[in-house]
Amino acid sequence: MPSHSSPLVVIVSGPSGSGKSTLVEKILEMPGTLFSISCTTRPPRSAETPGKWYDFVTESEFQRMVQEDAFLEYARVFGKHWYGTPRKWLERARQSGRDLVLEIDVQGAAQVMEKLPGSLAIFIVPPSRQELEHRIRARGQDSEEEIARRLDRARQEMHSFAKYDYVVVNDDLERAGREVQAILTAARCGRDRMSAPVRSILDSFGG
Known about the structure:
By secondary structure, the chain is an alpha/beta fold. Helices cover 45% and strands 20% of the residues.
């Protein structure tokens, strides 16, 4: 079970179109998990509900939060809009005894890994560049310029996979979903995280 005082922080990153949001939903199906809702200055897309994946804020609101040191991490993406993870979610995870799940880009992930070196980092990889482009185009949300920008950024982000603890290739959603759940299960059973429960059990045997 997640530790009440020290939640496991699970970072999920990957190129736009890799399917990381869907795999995050698979992780959140597991008991004892809490999703960190990011703040962003970009406008919501037509199918997005504020407060589900993102809290949409103004530029001035975002900068105020930066000044107040309210973010665990934040970054400007594509040189346009700001994204950030509010610190409050880490505190809520501690208070509720749940593991915290972050869906963030490689810039934000690097900041979290530096501040919280015990974090579990998972990188989601698409089957190929061609399939990634197909997925981005199928969404019907982006201009040709935006699609080119996302593909170029994906090329850059793919070089970051070596910094992550685990890499999951999302070429089969069911298998990839089982893999991300298995990764969290294995991390929860890690020796360091289970040391206190195991000591308690040892005490029941008389030391």
